Amino acid sequence: MRKMTARRGLGLAGLIVGLMSVVSPAAADLGLINMTRGVTESSRQIYDLHMTIFLITVVIGVLVFGAMFYSIYRHRKSRGVKPAKFHHSTAVEIVWTVIPLGILVAMAVPATQTLIELDDTSDAEMTVKVTGYQWFWGYEYMDEDVQFLSRLDVDSDRARQLGSGVQPASVDNYLQNVDKRLVVPVDTKIRFQITAADVIHSWWVPDLGWKKDAIPGFVNEAWTRIDEPGIYRGRCAELCGRDHGFMPIVVEAVEKDEFEEWLAGQRGGDAAAATASSNEQSEVSDQLASR
Question: Cα 135 to chain center, whole Å?
Fold first, then answer.
């Protein structure tokens, strides 16, 4: 009997080790082991808060399960241990009520402070309106006369089609690139006004530390201040229909002077695009008239 139990234990241990060896590398590649620390002060606060609460729960788990397993082993029936008989204890009940209450308060205070700071969009230096569509994003730089749509990039869109003959692995950042990135300046408090034009979407960039639902007829607000230039990727985090998995988000943070140059180029580009579109429409009209 003991040999059979030992074999079962070894088999179970081997199964667990095997699963961990398979899952751990995949999880590490996908960044699923832990939260993203992020590139903003608020994202780092969220990460530190998460790790603090995680460590508290680990300590509680070790103490509780350690005491439980020790008691099961030390006071098992096969050793002839008899169960103790005792009744109500006011002191014990006070202790196991006060201690968890103190732990909850210790976790709630910093969590509440962080949530309040996340919702404080006052003193923003610029505002970007984000609109979710089926299935792409629209961005409008308020008071800057710049707006555009951001869709899945052409290479990823071609590779995802059945029968395209294009291997997804051959496309850089497959399903994570867009044709037009959201460009923002560093060291700037940016207010985001997030809404939707059709169904509920959710704008999520893990490196910023938060996500906000995009709801038709309603505007959610959030803010960020990115410290370092870089490219940060995200996605729609709310199931919104057939092409939900094909509406990525790419935020490019650049230095302030580079951002001003980009804005100026966008204003000029919009005018050129409008002129080109007008010319194309005129050519089509002329061809139809000649027929």
Answer: 18
